[in-house]
Specification:
mainly beta; single chain; Porin; two-stranded antiparallel sheet; globular
Length: about 350
Amino acid sequence: MGHRPEPPSAAAGNARVGTSAEGVLTRPPETQGIPDRVGKAQTPCDSGQPARSLRCMIEAYLETADGSWFVPTEYSRGPWMVGACHAGPPTALMARALESIAREKRLTRVTVEIMRPIPMSGFRVLASMRKQGRSVTLTEAELYDEDAVYARAYGIHLRTVEHLEVTTAEVEAPKLSAAAPGPFPVPITAHGMTYFGDSVECRYDPPRSQAGGGPTTMWMRTTVPLLAGEEPSPFQSICPLADSLNGISYNSLDGLSFVNPDLTLSLHRDPMGEWFCAQAISHWEPSGIGLADAALFDHQGSVGRATQNLLLSPAGEEPRSTESAPGTDGITPAHRGTNNNRRG
């Protein structure tokens, strides 16, 4: 990965990794009549306030003063650990770094390995080239601070051509216009604070599927960008949904945790718009291993697929290795004491 920059106190002047995507996403006809993304914040959230008593506006998932050190906002917090992030925003940040060093090709696949809970205190991202070819480029990104590496992302970037005549498979896509509003699929947090679920809007298709787990078709839109004042790329925009699969399609909230130590996201075309859909299902096995799998869509149809390997454990049983089981997104509230807070 090469030499890492110094900690924040010694690296205030480091250059930003990556820049904003050019252009502005236009609103498709399919989303007419659905409210726009909420506006920017007027006042910041006070850290640690319960979500029910503090309904404030936050500008972005991450803040940065120098383009090098990134601090998560309340909207990046996961549902189970007060000091740990939902992995969606950090995944998008790593995708941003990968895209910044391979601009001549399209990022089509990212595999993220989560080694530890990603801290709310802040982190850096360093991207490097693994292989650069005429048609295929391989990249790698590392999310870290001065104490540890928390996640790594491995990217594949492919060259594109214009107007190639091809035939492709026809897929019956869900319709955003037929979906009904509903709550974020994880109904309980362990801390009651503002968290990732407060930053998104959800719609369910068919309407009878309302955040109850099991095979689920859910549309999701984030209400804030990754970074204030910067339009996220299409790949970055769908990362928060992709990392929510195990929470969308859990098979039970009774007595099991379902941690995802990884995420693989593959896109055959750039998703368009703000609303993205996952047709998600989770396979749980008696061996303690599971897989969350989803076809991904935008308002025009299929865009790709995402999977998460799952580590299934009895509720309250801590993983033996913190490096192999991050425990930030997929632990059922399980009955982690008496301070669980039902949301919705």
